[in-house]
């Protein structure tokens, strides 16, 4: 079954707030997404851009998550080097087996590094592998070495590539050849959601229209 992830701010809730997290958890989603940064004092908070004093502590979001043991939380890391700190906090909150990472995850020596946050699944953002990928592909230019890059990622132990849904069709054959699944973001059109729900290559759909997406999946089942 394809995962459905409630994007931060789904269905009109405010991004990166506890009501948004709670809404996602109550919606029937398999996962809720939050953006994660670290304040100067080391506190991990929900924030897309620079954090401020009103940013919600990640620990509070984990406390909500713990009440839903069947659900997961996709921590979209907005700065480098947060993987281990987020994982240690998740361990202390009792939710380490409910973690998914996306965002700024370093692919270098991934196989060795992943042992330090072993229970966290990783949806590796494609721009971590090729920083100019969107700039090129939205111009219709496919990097010549993209297949080699994806093969290297698979060899490192990466299983899922996280990418903007509009470029998925361009890379689907390369992903298949490398044995990689795809997580697509942010899909808000119901026609596209239905199409991706029926594509076995897609492991996750992140959407702001989470209740409609859940209903669509139920109809297809």
What's the arrangement of secondary structure elements?
Layout: E1 3-6, H1 18-26, E2 31-38, E3 44-46, E4 56-57, H2 58-66, E5 72-77, H3 83-93, E6 99-103, H4 110-114, E7 121-125, H5 126-129, H6 133-137, H7 146-155, E8 160-164, H8 168-177, E9 181-185, H9 190-197, E10 202-207, H10 210-220
Parallel strand pairs: 1-2, 1-10, 2-5, 5-6, 6-7, 7-8, 8-9, 9-10
Antiparallel strand pairs: 2-3, 3-4
Number of separate strands: 10
Number of helices, counting only DSSP H or I runs of 4 residues or more? 10
What fraction, in percent, of the residue positions are helical? 25-40%
N-to-C order of helices and strands = EHEEEHEHEHEHHHEHEHEH
Strand share of the residues? 15-25%
Sketch the major β-sheet.
Answer: 8 strands, parallel, barrel
In quaternary terms, these chains amount to: single chain
- In angstroms, what is the radius of gyration? 17 Å
Roughly what is the average pLDDT, rounded to an integer? Answer: 95
- Unreliable residue stretches: none
Terminal Cα span: 9 Å
Shape: globular
Task: Give a brief outline of the structure.
With 221 residues, the protein is α/β, with parallel strands linked by helices. Helices cover 37% and strands 22% of the residues. Strands 1-2-5-6-7-8-9-10 form an eight-stranded parallel barrel, surrounded by six helices.
Give a description of the structure.
With 221 residues, this protein is α/β, with parallel strands linked by helices. The chain has helices spanning 18-26, 58-66, 83-93, 110-114, 126-129, 133-137, 146-155, 168-177, 190-197, 210-220; strands spanning 3-6, 31-38, 44-46, 56-57, 72-77, 99-103, 121-125, 160-164, 181-185, 202-207. Strands 1-2-5-6-7-8-9-10 form an eight-stranded parallel β-barrel, surrounded by six helices. Helix 2 (58-66) packs across helix 3 (83-93) and helix 9 (190-197) packs across helix 10. The termini are close together. The model has no long low-confidence stretch (mean pLDDT 95).
